[in-house]
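Lecture 7 notes: from sequence to structure.
We start with the chain below.
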Amino acid sequence: MNDTFKALSDPTRRQILKLLKERDLSAGEIADHFQMSKPSISHHLSVMKQAKLVLDERKGQNIIYSLNTTVIQDALGWLMDFTHKDEGGNQHD
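Predicted structure tokens for the same chain:
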């Protein structure tokens, strides 16, 4: 879970996730949306892949990235636990 929150802490990575929410993209297509070097985009993708926020699949000479909604749902579920109180009125820990 730490890797997930670390990956989500960066605004560029959050923007990449928004792009992948729309459709699967190659690294080059992702890079086209940013004014930074391709190695920098590759680093962001690597961090997100390590956190399992994105999945990658080789298609010919390209690697196509897609959103892994399972990890996002798990993180959201963990955060939602803080909004629910147990029967004794105490917050979940």
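Points to note: The beta strands are 25-26, 54-59, 62-67. The longest strand covers residues 54-59.
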